[in-house]
Amino acid sequence: MSELHPGWPTVLTAGAVSLRPPKRRDAREWSRVRMANEEWLAQWEPSSRQSWSARNSRAEYYRTFSRMKSAARIGIMLPFMVVYGDRVVGQMNVSNVVRGALRSCSVGYWIDSTVAGRGITPTALALVIDHCLTEVGLHRVEVDIRPENAASLRVVEKLGLRREGYYERFLDIGGAWRDHVAFAITSEERANLPVLARLSSLPLPPA
């Protein structure tokens, strides 16, 4: 682990869900899953001049992997692959890590449509939040969601995140500036009940 980035690198696990740092050899599977999920994912992702196939090719993964590795090394990002059983089914990135007086970060993610609805995303997000507010030493975690994204809104509802604000025309997605709802949790709000424990009434995703 790095002094610049306590709590990294690491592997987080609950049931059959694991989060681990990306590997160079993930390129083939990452590209395959992304290509197969264009209809499911493209509507929520930043605008790009590249075609879906170009921005999700193995060559593009290698470039993205290099950027993520560099960002993680200097302590401004924690990139994770979401693994279910023994295969990559998504990605969850802790970005905009700020130390000092703020000690905050934001989390973004995507999941393979073939395993959606199995509790994988809430489990993965709970693992990441608990880790950020303990081992990583942050005070606040933010998740920003488009108001049309009902599935992601259900995720933060299950985890008990607090609605904190509404950002108008926040990100350029699908060729237009899209509003987002901001949800957050601080270490004080987590103190008496780890976020993963808030899912205790729901079964962990089976192996």
TrEMBL record:
InterPro entries: Acyl_CoA_acyltransferase (IPR016181), GNAT_dom (IPR000182), N-acetyltransferase (IPR051531)
Keywords: Acyltransferase, Transferase
Residue ranges of domain N-acetyltransferase in the record: 31-188
Keyword DNA repair: no
Ranges that cross the membrane: none
PROSITE patterns: GNAT
Family of this protein: Belongs to the acetyltransferase family. RimJ subfamily.
Protein name: GNAT family N-acetyltransferase
Organism annotation: Jatrophihabitans telluris
